[in-house]
């Protein structure tokens, strides 16, 4: 990220504690609008907690988070979650058809998703319109993840949070999802934050990267910092020596 980049999301001295446990510790930084920012770091670093803060599922103990210049604490929760979509590793599905799952965001708003729009969303994620009537139990892992992403796109989010969405997929499905996310980013200028444990993936698909450890933002910048990190802890992490 560069100082000239426009911020889609900005964190200003954000901390989060659960009872006596400090999970996020005084983080300041921003996600560049229209870019893909990867979040890397060891397990327990606080990456998923950051996403829950960005999506408004939890609130900071201290500090402020701004979405396109507006403090998210002042935003109506459903409006925030329409703007900041999230897709998770397990791609949780409702029982029933693909259409029922795609329609869920509209159903929660007491609205109806037109079949034509649902079919268009499927084509956007590389699935044929015939998938609309399939039962989700008949889908492969990669197909389920594509449906999950399509469902997130129903609200036309400006920011998309992806939490380890390819970690349980095979190589071919992973490559499909990576290409899909890059397509969504480029075609719709969606700002994307992606948690990944795979450093090669972070270098391949990201523009910028955040390296988190023990609830702290240790390094942030263009993705190439992973090739030559300045911080000794990050050097150990990228070499697989972090304890």
Automatic annotation (TrEMBL):
Keyword Nucleotide-binding: yes
GO biological process per UniProt: phosphate ion transmembrane transport
Listed SMART domains: AAA
Keywords: ATP-binding, Nucleotide-binding, Transport
CDD domains (UniProt xref): ABC_PstB_phosphate_transporter (cd03260)
MF GO annotations: ATP binding; ATP hydrolysis activity; phosphate transmembrane transporter activity
InterPro entries attached to this UniProt entry: AAA+_ATPase, ABC_transporter-like_ATP-bd, ABC_transporter-like_CS, P-loop_NTPase, PstB-like
GO cellular component, one term: membrane
Domain ABC transporter: 9-238
Keyword ATP-binding: yes
Pfam assignment, any one: ABC_tran
Protein name: Glycine betaine/carnitine/choline transport ATP-binding protein OpuCA
